[in-house]
User: Fold these one by one.
Assistant:
Number 1:
Amino acid sequence: QQQVKQSPQSLIVQKGGISIINCAYENTAFDYFPWYQQFPGKGPALLIAIRPDVSEKKEGRFTISFNKSAKQFSLHIMDSQPGDSATYFCAARGGGYSTLTFGKGTMLLVSP
Amino acid sequence: DSGVTQTPKHLITATGQRVTLRCSPRSGDLSVYWYQQSLDQGLQFLIQYYNGEERAKGNILERFSAQQFPDLHSELNLSSLELGDSALYFCASSVDALTGGDTQYFGPGTRLTVL
């Protein structure tokens, strides 16, 4: 049973545009929500993470928006660049465990 | 470079065979996690070890097993291999501090091809 649903599966954005990736979760015990970025041939790397006591977290061009009541969170990439082209995974952790449950990933292509 | 190393980088084998994937965590990290990544299933958590002991189990098949040694490196053993086991296998490590967030650092992965 998939506990973290991610959309869209793929996304094409023009350079300078805003990329938005959405995730929804079911388990209310989740208390940590990271986003990972993966380039071809590499392992995923932590991009940004949020805990549910805040509704938004920003790091440079990357922002997580979190809606606890809707059990949804999203990644916004402002001023998207070709170098941002990668696969993005949302994840969630909680309930006393340190294991992560990942969404299925979004392949982002930023066209020049 | 995450500091997590995995060997080998690529592995090609035949159905029915047995292989061992190796992972060395970042210095100081006590937890090791194994994930399987395939196109249709995404990143699936397999198993976690903490300081030598199994901590959590995910979608790991009975044909698969893992262990973490006293020097904290870990091995994932895959036996009676089937075509469907072809995937990328990632190891990740963390300090395993549940409070204040817990970043998992991923290795470069081992690409397993079963022919």
Number 2:
Amino acid sequence: EAGVAQSPRYKIIEKRQSVAFWCNPISGHATLYWYQQILGQGPKLLIQFQNNGVVDDSQLPKDRFSAERLKGVDSTLKIQPAKLEDSAVYLCASSSRLGGIYNEQFFGPGTRLTVL
Amino acid sequence: SQQGEEDPQALSIQEGENATMNCSYKTSINNLQWYRQNSGRGLVHLILIRSNEREKHSGRLRVTLDTSKKSSSLLITASRAADTASYFCATDGMDSSYKLIFGSGTRLLVRP
């Protein structure tokens, strides 16, 4: 079974530029998550999709971050414009069920973003 | 905000020794999970313990859960150099729309 795929693996941009990350979840997984992980901290959930609908985006800075999951499969996360504090690893994860006692999540390798 | 807080923040042991990490959380949970993250990689799920379970084993891993104290511990027995990684607890809260909330992690170094 193929894992969660993410691209690019690394990205360096200057502040005020735009950037987009792509995620392809495990086949058949209905739930998809985007996390931000700042160096030395645990992952923080940015947005959670169930199929192509948003379940939770309470911690997504909506003035600059946007995400979509068209057709309920692949997802993209965009930052426009980027700030220095957006430097982090952006992790995508997927799971087969929404919550309950089976909410094991499978993570991709992440995209390391550096904003200069 | 982060619900789970791990203790200690960093741990250095000799190969063959046991490593114990603790996690405390604040609200009622459906389950608690432990994940491992090797440097520069994504997280890997290790073990899930449900709120009605007290102890669970998986290979060299032993997890306990005390819901009255809102705490969990992860024990890695007979550690190996390959166990060097960061370990995170994550809680699936009853009131958090099924999202996982991660702690800040314990960085484990196993010296050969």
Number 3:
Amino acid sequence: EVQLVESGGGLVQPGRSLRLSCTTSGFTFGDYTMSWVRQAPGKGLQWVGFIRSKAFGGTTEHAAAVKGRFTISRDDSKSIAYLQMNSLKTEDTAIYYCTRYNWNDPESAFDIWGQGTMVTVSS
Amino acid sequence: DIQMTQSPSSLSASVGDRITITCRASQGIRNDLGWFQQKPGKAPKRLIYAASSLQSGVPSRFSGSGSGTEFTLTISSLQPEDFATYYCLQHNVYPRTFGQGTKVEIK
């Protein structure tokens, strides 16, 4: 069974850091570009960024709202994607989801999502 | 950035109604679009990929159409379990962008 499980969320003060993990199983993680999407309370979905698979360079793209503060990485040996969040702001408060996409398989585009992890930035 | 304009933002409908939700892209995105359903407290669930392909296991009353800049999600006969919020997502270019969402409520 394909699974994505986010962890690492919690309450953090503005200006501090937090690292989220997306632990996966049931598929060949290395073949997939991994994305992070967030949802502020009562709001819509917002793309945060992605990390390409190694076959596509393993590079990252981030949304303007988080660029320079958030960094996505991956450990293919552990099948985990990470979202390092630095200099957190109150507006980063949201549920953070991870999702997958194998660029060689259009049918896989964002087909599976984790359950999400809540990040609350507050003093 | 590509803007995805989704309409309506909300709608009230009855069980058995046919409803259509539209997403318009500010520039052409081929068919690189998905539709997602989200219920309160749950993760998004993919319904449609490549603009018109039905996700395995999703009821056939859901359908998607369009290419380029205009896309639609249609539910042919609304069922009680379909009351939720629906989003489109373009993945033709980055930043990826979602529509603002359409909340489907019971009339």
Number 4:
Amino acid sequence: GENVEQHPSTLSVQEGDSAVIKCTYSDSASNYFPWYKQELGKRPQLIIDIRSNVGEKKDQRIAVTLNKTAKHFSLHITETQPEDSAVYFCAATNSGYALNFGKGTSLLVTP
Amino acid sequence: EPEVTQTPSHQVTQMGQEVILRCVPISNHLYFYWYRQILGQKVEFLVSFYNNEISEKSEIFDDQFSVERPDGSNFTLKIRSTKLEDSAMYFCASRTSWPKETQYFGPGTRLLVL
């Protein structure tokens, strides 16, 4: 089955700096890669996703890149703010099937 | 904006007891999922449900677990005889049909088995 590895497990940045979280996946059939943000005690919320026919997608301060050949994808957050502090999970799936999550990255943005 | 809802928000039960966790998916969604998250760990897939039957299940989803869509709005997860290791946050998720692949998560039910 699909195995998703996520790094780093914790990340601390100063407000205004950029943050990058990286994930790798094992199943070449995976074609949908969402990123979820989870605040303490809350539900995971989708922040951005990318499909395998696209190499990069951007939404304001958030961007995701995908390298299908290397089977890795990354989340980039620019101009970080304290409210970006949360746990971020990457996931991979073959359309419609179960989401396979990474272990999460705890991001702390300090003022 | 419509959201997935779940009840109860918290449940405490004794080992060996049966629990039923309830979810109301977003009304026009067709695919339903249960995931669990043990404290401090990643979200793990349990089961997916489409067209009134299980479409996929993980190794975690053994004979102690069952799912049901008893009516047009609810989606339930039953654990027949709870174990200590079933203590976790259980999330329901739903999505509409392809090509929309986004799964929307409910707020979760925190289950504590004593």
